[in-house]
Amino acid sequence: PAPRTRRKLLGRLSLPERNFVAEALRTETVGGVLLLVAAVTALIWANTAGGAYESVRGFHLGPGSLGLDLSVQHWAADGLLAVFFFVAGIELKRELVAGDLRDPRAAALPVVAALCGMAVPALVYVLTNTLGGGSTNGWAVPTATDIAFALAVLAVIGTSLPSALRAFLLTLAVVDDLFAILIIAVFFTSDLNFAALGGAFLGLAVFWVLLRKGVRGWYVYVPLGVIIWGLMYNSGIHATIAGVAMGLMLRCHRRDESEPHSPGERVEHLVRPLSAGLAVPLFALFSAGVSVSGGALGDVFTQPETLGVVLGLVVGKAVGIFGGTWLAARFTKAELNEDLAWADVFAVASLAGIGFTVSLLIGELAFTGDPRLTDEIKAAVLTGSLIAAVLSGILLKIRNAKYRGLWEDEERDEDLDGIPDVYELHKPEYHLRMAAIHEKKAAEHRRLAEVAGGESEDGNGPA
Asked: Domain holding 266: CATH number?
């Protein structure tokens, strides 16, 4: 029998998957730049007009009779982030039914890498605080990855990261979001209001039935989604869980060839810009504003809680994801793509140490009763994310020439048919088209040579 070929680790994506990843990451990159702008604006605002910043984000609005008289900061964290988690739910569903996670062998790599990338930072945090006598309540803070912020860093440093590594980073973030949601639901749920929880589940059931019946129209689903969100908020479970639950219910596969896009793909295409361009930046604007001074920055590296967050993001994430990827490759006998090196995997693992959005949210939930420590944890998240961004930027910049070559090979389309050449090398018709193109170019070169070597019409020298 013929020997079995070893499965490629971080190999070339299929063309549909590549196109989907490119479109998704394009939106996230723009959102990431807006996120950076919002975070910097929040820091400047909080440190130049702190009183005004606190007044705005502490301003309450909403119907108190429905239990929704919330501050602007809470509306951003509980309301706008529900949109972010709704998109995360759709992404997860698509990965499970049409993406890398549908194949158990292919799913093993990002799942193991993401789990190790959450477990190791949590262990680093717990160990730091156990030895330093700090609070272990914040163990979950350094476990999250912010894909938008990470892609913004890629946009700023200008690296042409190959699509396989970008897809790996995106899938990591999707799995990471799933476990972050589970952490929030299990460990940060207050006393349950079973009446409201029952109402939320009833609303989700209606949402599911309407989807299965093929009912269409935003005027049906948006009001229903708001009701489900409000009931979930009042139930004591974090309201973002409503967003991911509704996202997971959308159908993300096409019924037949006559359906160009599944409902999940259509909705994600519409909502992702709202999430990346508005919801997440506004959350950052009203959550990232902490007072920064020399003393405060010094405290980040001296207090066990804040030091644990920084070490968890910078060291724990890189070691956990790299180690998990290596273990997955070792025990599934997968072979790393020959165009890449393990140094590339470590650079992407370091990039995943940017844990901005969800880390800030978990920091608020973990230390709700201590505003001072909450602000210090936020400062630690900002510091750790910045260090991870700089470190990964340096590592990726070193290999940028190699990445640019791989990217150009992926993008090359000499026959101008809209499909990169690397996806057509096995097709006879592609080679026939290329032969015709080369013959046409050769004929044009011969014609120009004849014209250049011939006589002008008036006989006074070369034409």
From this structure: 1.20.1530.10
* Owner of token pair 């096995």: 426
Query: Alpha helix locations (H) across 236-355?
Result: 240-249, 263-274, 280-287, 294-300, 304-311, 317-332, 342-351
Residue 66 lies inside a defined structural domain of this protein: yes
Query: Which residues fall within 8 angstroms of residue 325, CB to CB, at 6 or more apart?
Result: 9, 109, 112, 113, 345, 349
Sequence letter at residue 14: S
Q: How far apart are CA 42 and CA 48, in angstroms?
A: 10
Between CA 346 and CA 319 the distance in angstroms is 8
| Residues 321, 339: Cα–Cα separation, whole Å | 20
d(CA 287, CA 379): 11
DSSP per residue, 393-458: HHHHHHTHHHHHHHHHHHH--TT-SSS-GGGTTT-HHHHHHHHHHHHHHHHHHHHHHHHHHSB-TT
Residue 6 lies in a domain: no
How many C-beta neighbours within 10 Å does residue 274 have?
Answer: 16
Q: Which of these three, 410, 426, 445, is where a domain ends? A: 410
293 with 418, same domain: the answer is no
Q: What is the pLDDT of residues 160-211, one digit of tens each?
A: 777 778 878 888 888 888 888 888 888 887 678 999 999 999 999 999 999 9
Number of structural domains, the chain? 2
Residues composing the chain: 463
pTM for this one? 0.80
Q: 93: helix, coil or strand?
A: helix
Domain identity same for 248 and 374? yes
d(CA 333, CA 320): 19
Asked whether residue 200 is domain-assigned, the answer is no
Report helix angle 15-48 to 147-157, nearest 10.
90
Backbone angles phi, psi at 63, to 5 degrees: -75, 110
Residues 6+ apart with CB under 8 A from 182: none
Mean pLDDT of 229-240: 90
Taking the CA atoms of residue 207, residue 211, residue 217 and residue 223 in that order, the dihedral angle to the nearest 10 degrees is 10
- Whether the pLDDT of residue 99 is over 80: the answer is no
Residue 342 lies in a domain: yes
Domain stop point among 388, 410, 432: 410
Q: What gap in Å lies between CA 66 and CA 50, rounded to an integer? A: 31
Q: Is 144 in the same domain as 274?
A: yes
| Sign of the alpha-carbon torsion through 15, 103, 353, 375 | positive
Give me the domain span that covers residue 182: 16-189+238-410
* Residue 111 CA: distances (Å) to CA of 20, 149, 354: 20, 21, 18
Strand partners, 71: 60
